[in-house]
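Sample 3 of the quickstart, ligand GEK:
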Amino acid sequence: MSHDSLYAIPKNKVPPFEFDEAVVAVFPDMIERSVPGYALLLPLIGQIASRYAQPHSRCYDLGCSLGAVTLALRQQIQQDGVRITAVDNSAAMIETCEEIIGRSGPGLPVDLVEADICQIAITNASVVVLNFTFQFVPPTQRDALIQRIFDGLLPGGALILSEKVLFAPAELDDLLVTLHHDFKRANGYSDLEISQKRTALENVLISETVPQHQARLLRAGFASADLWFQAFNFVSLLAIK
Ligand code: GEK
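Result:
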């Protein structure tokens, strides 16, 4: 696994963050050292999916990156006739994801799609996973995407939504952001790397609060939308149709 040092050298002007070849080359290291709880979330998402997957339905991994969630679904879902649709709009991610899934041996069939998740059809779905992807969707497109996911889910289907979130009051948000930065520092990132990455993500990763996410999910028609995981300012919600 290549070591992420993309922001280790001072830049005159930090460009907006992109999921390009340079990020793909270090992605597993980057996400594990940056997202508290990431390694634990993957098997737990697989476990939840194994409960909600319905025979002869589809499971969607939206914003699949290198397929970590897809691999967890492939390993843990036992129901007959399930197919996985894994979608990402980064060509570099999809190319490497294809190699990784190809090497991963037999398992549920995977349809790998290079597309914007706001543009794809979602049908006959029993499980949809957005693991730290929705935060990159432009806010004006968020309601419509959640509505299309809801409409494409079968009754009893599940949406797992993991996000970096904001908290109120501001003092709590400050504390959780500080703890997140401490986590990154403990994982070997310097103050310069933390600050340049933060600048790169401004206006690219746009967080909302847990109540904002829950209100949108309930407005779309989900019967429930509950928090099931939190590590500092990183959470995961489970919404059931
Ligand atoms: C994991 N889920 O390892 N359409 C398609 N893909 C998108 C879009 C979009 N509109 N916007 C962003 N992406 C993965 C981690 S990473 C999270 C997900 C992170 C893709 C983007 O190209 C990237 O691969 C992924 O969403 C976000 O569990 O890096 O913080």
